[in-house]
Design a protein that fits this description.
Chain lengths: 297, 311
């Protein structure tokens, strides 16, 4: 844009300092910062099997409790002589796998239930809304703990439990969005053209709301990773000796009094960086999606 | 009002029943036998059967459930397997600790999060606000058990300013409370900012400003007053959730509350104690939410007038 195209007194500098422009810039900052934080964790975790790392399960007994930056062990070792970096990266694979599977499941479940409740209304809406309310009043972590403690801490059980814990959020948002979308002329047009109700929902309504719903589902990844680590911490995670983030911290907690602070602090930083990255990225994307929606109508 | 109150009370009872039933079924359907934890070491099958009979676990699930509900109606919520005393007693011994922690945490949260959220809303889209925004996102990104450990390492182990665990002196509450507050402040302040943002941009505010109302009054007397219902609701919900056990924080700091109790009971499969803990905390949490609902007419005259108009 050239200066000539801008109305007289409002120069380019003023425009750049306007609230709208600043808001756009800040969402870009959040997206980049988030991508960097998440990338720092996700990329090494994804490459854990390729990188030249020591075995995460079997340690070297003469290299126990080494502090970070010891030769050969960048982040040090635990009392069993296992390399902490290797354990964090391999543990991250389990934690991330559970998180991704859980949000995929809760996303599909939530969007489908929310769309059905919003479009059909009536008794479908009543059932879905009552279920959402009932779940809100349950003590969540306690129930998750109960199920995992009783049915065994395997990857499918933990994934399922987290997915069930998380479906309300995308469901509620999708329902609200569909309620608005349902009244728009294009839906009436599709009805006049004789399209089936399922087809209208899947082909016409969902594509219009998907970007907003998906951002919320993506933000759930942060919650899922935190929940999984909390469960592992309470002993209801994937079983030892296989590392998970919460499990590593839980193992380290008896030891930090003896001065082995790195066993607790460093895995926590990995979780916090990843979750912060996902949250920032999701928050920035949400601002952007909302604005795009506002511009195109 | 009484009709509304009765309906809410009915919903509360229904939710409590629903929760208790789910917990009861989950416990009975899960694999594993609690009797093994309470029989002598290397038990014979007769000894196991005797324990099962003593706890009533040899009955069919349906009759166990009916017995349980029948006893509930008479105010008997079961006898703990491990403590061999009424489960209600065991829970009530622990409850004051959880309530103390929850009250302290919610008070500090409200005192910090509300001014922070209002400030963020008034400074919307400026560089300091972006900083605070990212800080609150960071606050909700850290695992709470990890925050607890880091605080322990810094203040209890290295500086030795504060006790690390248990509840022996008043200073023991500082670290657990701080751990909870970090996350809660992040959540509540963002909610306050969102609600305030809507009201600060509303036309009535512009009109009030043009009439010369002071900025302070515009912020607190106009915009915040109109944002207070969602904020109070959120604080109430958070407080209620804390009563359900600040499980993780209690485990980290060995705080003798109900959260720690239930984790312990789970590992020993102490069915009556688990059921009792869930029942008591859920009923308490529901009562808190009911109270918050009843506060609405006091906070917001629109609700009050709406109710009078309906009469």
């Amino acid at each position: 844009m050239t200066d000539a195209a801008v109305p007289s007194n409002v120069g380019r500098r003023l425009l750049r300092r306007s609230a709208a422009a600043r808001k756009a810039r800040y969402s870009t900052i959040k997206i980049w910062l988030g991508a960097i934080c998440a990338g720092i964790v996700i990329i090494p975790v994804a490459l854990a099997r390729v990188l030249p790392l020591p075995d995460p399960v079997h340690g070297v007994l003469k290299e126990t409790s080494l502090p970070p930056f010891s030769p050969g062990h960048l982040l040090g070792t635990d009392p069993n002589g296992r390399d902490l970096l290797s354990r964090i990266l391999h543990g991250g694979q389990t934690s991330l796998l559970i998180g991704l599977l859980a949000i995929a499941l809760s996303g599909v479940l939530g969007i489908a239930a929310g769309a059905a409740a919003g479009y059909f209304g009536g008794w479908v809406d009543t059932i879905v809304s009552r279920l959402l309310e009932a779940q809100l009043s349950l003590p969540l972590l306690l129930m998750l703990l109960l199920v995992v403690a009783l049915f065994g801490p395997s990857v499918p059980v933990i994934t399922l439990v987290i997915a069930i814990a998380q479906w309300p959020e995308p469901a509620r948002l999708t329902r609200a969005l569909v309620l608005v979308e349902r009244e728009k002329p294009y839906v009436a047009a599709a009805q006049v053209l004789g399209l089936g109700r399922i087809k209208i929902i899947v082909r016409h309504i969902i594509p219009n709301i998907l970007s907003q719903s998906l951002v919320v589902v993506f933000l759930l990844l942060a919650q899922a990773v935190l929940l999984e680590s909390a469960l592992s911490f309470l002993g209801a995670g994937v079983q030892r000796p296989y590392p998970t983030w919460g499990g590593i911290i839980s193992d380290g907690r008896e030891l930090f009094v003896t001065g082995a602070w790195w066993l607790v602090t460093i895995p926590g930083i990995a979780i916090a960086l990843l979750v912060l990255g996902v949250n920032l990225l999701g928050d920035g994307l949400r601002d952007r999606v909302r604005r795009a929606k506002a511009v195109t109508g | 009002m009484p009709r509304y109150f009765l309906r809410r009370l009915g919903q509360t009872v229904l939710t409590a029943w629903f929760t208790v039933t789910i917990v009861f079924l989950l416990l009975r359907l899960a694999p594993g036998d609690p009797a093994a934890n309470y029989a002598p070491p290397n038990p014979t099958s007769e000894q196991l059967a005797a324990v099962r009979q003593e706890f009533g676990l040899d009955q069919p699930i349906l009759s166990q459930y009916l017995t349980y509900l029948g006893n509930l109606l008479q105010g008997d919520i079961g006898t703990s397997f491990q403590f061999r005393q009424p489960a209600l007693q065991v829970v009530m011994d622990r409850l004051p600790y959880t309530i103390t922690l929850a009250v302290a945490a919610i008070a500090v949260t409200a005192a910090v999060a509300i001014p922070l959220g209002v400030w963020m809303a008034r400074r919307g889209n400026t560089a300091p606000e972006l900083g605070a925004n990212i800080a609150t996102i960071a606050g909700q990104s850290m695992p709470d058990f990890w925050i607890g450990f880091v605080l322990l390492i810094v203040f209890a182990v290295n500086l030795q300013w504060l006790p690390s665990s248990g509840f022996n002196s008043m200073t023991a509450i500082v670290l657990p409370c701080l751990t909870i507050v970090v996350l809660q402040v992040a959540l509540i302040s963002r909610l306050v900012r969102r609600e305030m943002g809507v009201n600060l941009a509303a036309p009535y505010l512009t009109i009030a400003r043009s009439r010369g109302v002071s900025e302070r009054r515009l912020t607190w007397g106009y915009a915040f007053a109109n944002s207070s219902i969602p904020v109070v609701t959120a604080l109430g919900t958070r407080f209620a959730a804390m009563l359900n056990g600040v499980v993780i924080v209690e485990v980290v700091f060995k705080w003798p509350g109900v959260g720690e109790l239930v984790v312990d009971a789970l590992s020993r499969r102490d069915f009556p104690l688990i059921q009792a803990t869930v029942l008591v905390t859920v009923v308490l949490a529901l009562l808190v939410q009911l109270l918050v609902d009843l506060l609405y007419p006091l906070i917001d005259p629109r609700v009050r007038l709406g109710q009078e108009a309906r009469r």
